[in-house]
Amino acid sequence: MNRKAALFLTSTGISNLGDWIYFIPLNMMVYSMTGSAAAVAGVYIIRPLAGILTSFWAGSLIDRYSQRNLMIGLDFMRALLVLLILAAPTLPIIYVLVFLICMVDAVYDPAAAAYSSRLIPSKYRQVFNSYKSLAWSGSFILGPALAGLLFITGQPEFAFFANSFTFIISALLLFLLPHLGTAGHPPEKRISFSVYADDWRMVIGYMKSARYVMSVYLLFNGLMMMAAALDSQEVVFSREILKLSDSAYGLLVSISGIGLLIGSFFNRLAVKKLSPSFLIGCGGLMIAGGYLVYSLSSTFLMAAIGFFILAFFMAFANTGIWTFYQDHVPADIMGRVGSALGMVISLIQVIFVSGIGLAGDWFPLRIVIISGAGVMVLLSLLLFTAAMKPFSHMPQLGKQLNKSDVR
């Protein structure tokens, strides 16, 4: 991995670590202010709602302006917004600030994906994404651990300063990376409603012409959103159905983190020998299988096995889908396509999380979790079929559109 790739990976990795450090104290702050589990759940709903509202216009900015400079500005914005949470006097203001942070995230993530696809040559993308998965899994383990340490020392508010600092470091590292222009076409002086309308027509046209790419990407994210929906009931299931203590539940989460880290190491060793489609298809099957084992578990050991399996193969599946997306979506429209897909995925997340939450109130939780795992198995089988389907030609819309179409 060359210097530029290492700098970019370090920048995004540090930023992601900060997110994990402050997320737990944020939930605890909301709970201490309200004493309401529903208020904490509201934090989880904010992200997809912010993604839906942002996706309408974010892609047009990402594809028309310097993605590196855009990410730098967004990092500084996030640094400020995180610090403002500490000074927020009421829950509604906290929600507003979290909503703004999530809106910035909804612009940053597709911008980072588009920039990395132009920064990293295609033959090195899968290796780069395996390192990215390793960094992500390390953040998943280290971030909550550091947050827990801050609680022990009696300084949980320091997590917000730490997260703000990580955003600043991330921005400074991005200054060291090259400015790659504006995705191959000049920026608009003024983005009007007609420009947004043209962009959405272009995106819809691309999606229709790239049904294979869309089917794989949306099936994968549907699988992940159902996993997120089941995760929203994880604490209740572990305590009420499995009868686990707080310490046992903490150990279960730690086992999941260890599985993710070990899987990332194995993924890094094997990534050159496996295709993205294979990583997606087989990884998705094993993730669903892990959730099914967990849903059927009646003991700590069985639940731990399920958690380890799903976390281990998460690293393989993530590397596969990141590489697949970068290889198949043209770089000059990746921002717009990514934002549109983000809106669809956010809608799916709201539907799945709300559906599982309501079902958990209406029906026995064990039945709800098993049913959700069954849906995951069905989605994973469809994903495996779609991902492994041979194809001889995938239209690259970026080569077919004229300049007026992509401006």
UniProtKB/TrEMBL annotation:
Localization recorded for this chain is:
Cell membrane
Q: Where are the transmembrane segments?
A: 33-58, 134-152, 158-180, 210-228, 248-266, 278-294, 300-325, 337-359, 365-387
Which PROSITE patterns does this one have? MFS (PS50850)
**Claim: Transmembrane is one of the keywords in the record:** yes
Domain Major facilitator superfamily (MFS) profile intervals: 1-389
**Topology with regard to the membrane?**
Multi-pass membrane protein
Give the keywords, sorted.
Cell membrane, Membrane, Transmembrane, Transmembrane helix, Transport
The keyword Transport appears for this protein: yes
Name of the protein in its database record: MFS transporter
